[in-house]
Amino acid sequence: MNRINILAIESSCDDTSAAVIADGVVLSNCVANQEVHHQYGGVVPEVASRAHQASIIPVVEMAIHKAGIAKSDLQAVAFTRGPGLLGSLLVGTSFAKAFALSYQLPLIEVNHMQAHVLAHFAEDPKPKFPFLCLTVSGGHTQIVLVRNFLDMEFIGQTLDDAAGEAFDKSGKLLGLGYPAGPLIDRYAREGQPRFPFPEPVIPGLDFSFSGLKTSILYFLKKEVAGNPNFIQENLADICASIQETIVTVLLKKLRKAARQTGIREIAIAGGVSANSGLRAALAAMGEKEGWTTYIPDFQYCTDNAGMIGINAYYKYLAGEFCGQDAAPYAR
User: Are residue 68 and residue 87 in the same domain, yes or no?
Assistant: First the structure.
């Protein structure tokens, strides 16, 4: 029996990525980053979509070459349909449709956030069903109950801002570059969390980070008014305090979800899952709570086509294909 080779395309934000997956195994996973956004302090949607147009053909060619296959060996084309930036998604969606049409291949549309969850199946060890996944990125913060590859329920989510946005916006207040999340993580390793910030009180399993961002803003304004050099003199400790607060909020909700469901298979995913404080805190809480924890490799934390292909493989097995009329969606 011939193996199932799938070309996967990811273009939801500012990373252009292509991957080839064979029978659920990632053969190649190529990403082109867009450094241009650093000068703006955030992703500019129109700039991102134009950069995708320039990068997508070279990235796809590289992914196929690295996989060691020919285009004629492919059985399907998968793409991120959403959520994401519409202009960016349009580039990936249009390319995938044209490629599939040219080679008479079926199309598979993939939800970006579900793909983050299934990134755990790109490498061992892999979670056992059912498991809980805390999916944390710049645009989303969710607790997902994963019953099988294609059956997921969002049992908790942010009511306003995402945790990744809280990191980036706090970093902007501190004068850090974009993206600020990794910079806060780096400085936090050198500091102590000695500045208390209030944790949001939200019932159930939902999150809120807008109030935390506001409290950080007022705290910095007050301290800088008394000492203009406050941020420079205390940067590491401020970063450590911000990081500990966000991580604490995330893991308290995750622990609550685990106790409510009785599930002890616990995973994290999304761009913020690369945060060293979150990874260490999850491991510590997992040991205390008796969980089996799963933390993805760094290449599968940020946006990448490998995770899109993993999701698409199981959709292929289930016969879940889409037509040429599939349109991208922002949310």
Answer: yes
